[in-house]
Amino acid sequence: MPENRTPTPPKARSRKPRKTGRRHPLASVALIAIGLLFTGGAYAAFSTSTASAATDATSQQTIDEGRKLFIANCATCHGMQAQGADAGPSLIGVGAASVDFQVGTGRMPMAAQGPQALQKPVQFSDEDVAALAAYIGSLAPGPAIPEAHEIDGEGDASAGAELFRINCAMCHNVAGAGGALTEGKFAPSLAETSSKHIYEAMVTGPQNMPVFNNLNITPEGKRDIITYLKYLQTHPSPGGYELGNFGPVSEGLFLWIFGIGSIVALTVWITAKSN
């Protein structure tokens, strides 16, 4: 009889594990970072555009307010469009710095025609001065009101003193005490002038003063000059009584009156005692 044999089952095929795509551990972090970057960039762009629009609206409002103030207070002399008239020059192109100086020091509006506009109490508030300056500055390019870092008084006082002696001392005196000019004009004292108005005077050339643009005196040089003048304002003369800081004139007058006068008085007294 044939021998019964149990069939041997076929060998099971060995199955290799199927590779599954596994995400890198930093992938989630990268996706979050990209999302935050995109969201932040979009928000920044939106915020910037909104801020710019708000700034433009504020600037236009300030200009409009300045135009109203100009028509009410300045147009009589300078014309309705600031084009100038018989009583006043054109203001087109003088820049915001010129208006800020003239109105901010009380020189404008002028009380009466004269050799030059005199400094007097300011007639407008700071906001009104800024509005007038913004309006005139919008008519044509011109010198702008200086930024804080240009007038901070943190420059080189020694370099500023040299620049001041070369460019300014012939009119304003080496100590900034001022001096007389021709035809009833004069260079004012700088003993109490603010840093902003010093800078604005240099770039606009008010009255008889020449214009010192950036080709004549660099912005850094202007900063140095301001530093020197602020030093003079805050440090009294170490040599005693200054005699007005007018140099040989006041010093010579002092010697003639008190020096020679004392010698004459002493001579008379000695002569009277000897008789």
Widest β-sheet, arrangement of strands: 1-2
Q: What's the total number of strands?
A: 2
Structural class: mainly alpha
What name does the CATH topology of the largest domain carry? Cytochrome Bc1 Complex, Chain D, domain 2
Radius of gyration: 38 Å
Number of domains: 2
For the record, what CATH class of the largest domain applies? Mainly Alpha
* Arithmetic mean pLDDT: 83
CATH architecture of the largest domain: Orthogonal Bundle
Discrete helix count: 9
Account of the protein in words:
Keywords: Cell membrane, Electron transport, Heme, Iron, Lyase, Membrane, Metal-binding, Repeat, Respiratory chain, Translocase, Transmembrane, Transmembrane helix, Transport. Residues 12-24 have a biased composition (Basic residues). There is one protein chain. This protein is an all-alpha fold. The protein folds into two domains: 40-142, Cytochrome c-like domain (Cytochrome Bc1 Complex, Chain D, domain 2), CATH 1.10.760.10; 146-259, Cytochrome Bc1 Complex, Chain D, domain 2, CATH 1.10.760. It is built from nine helices and two strands, in the order ααααααββααα. A two-stranded antiparallel sheet has the order 1-2. Helix 1 (27-73) crosses helix 4 (126-139) and helix 7 (195-204) packs across helix 8. The longest helix has 47 residues, at 27-73. Residues 47-55 have low confidence and may be disordered.
